[in-house]
Amino acid sequence: MTTPSEPHVDFTVLDAAALLAIAMGGAADVSARPLSGTPKVVRDAALVGAWRSPDGTVQLRLHTDGTYAGAVAGRRQAARGTYDIKDGDVVLHDVSGLNTPVHVLDGELEMAGHRLLPV
After folding, report:
1. Of the candidates 95, 97, 96, 94, which has an alpha carbon nearest to the alpha carbon of residue 111?
2. Could you say which of 37, 51, 59, 108 is the most buried, measured as most Cβ atoms within 10 Å of its Cβ?
3. DSSP state, 78?
4. Which Pfam families match (predicted)?
5. Per-residue 3-state assignment (H helix, E strand, C coil) for 28-55
6. Tens digits of residue pLDDT in 35-80
7. Which stretches of the chain are assigned E, i.e. beta strand?
8. Do residues 100 and 92 lie in contact, with contact meaning Cβ atoms separated by under 8 Å?
9. How confident is the model over 68-86, as pLDDT tens digits?
């Protein structure tokens, strides 16, 4: 029996993809589009390619087929999914259903407070 004086303990368990999305500043979006189907081909040469934070802790690779792969130091599972370019910025759609906005600023990317430079 629980009494009002006992503390509440939350045993929420997050998978690696959810933790990566949280670390990268993403948020769950129940309206996220499903990842089934073929991603759009992206031909924006300024964005496609490898990006990395100056300290090397965050890495992101945007592919021409509309998919991406990302990694954060200390995380076991890499992020992956598709991306869209909206109003000059990028939105990453992780396979877990989380979306992460990435802002394009003067030839650099800003994602969850991390500055990414082209490799």
Report:
1. 94
2. 51
3. P
4. Atu4866
5. ECCCCCCCCCCCCCCCCCCCCEEEECCC
6. 444 445 555 667 899 999 999 999 999 999 999 999 989 888 889 9
7. 27-28, 49-52, 58-62, 67-72, 79-86, 89-94, 98-105, 108-111, 114-118
8. yes
9. 999 989 888 889 999 998 8
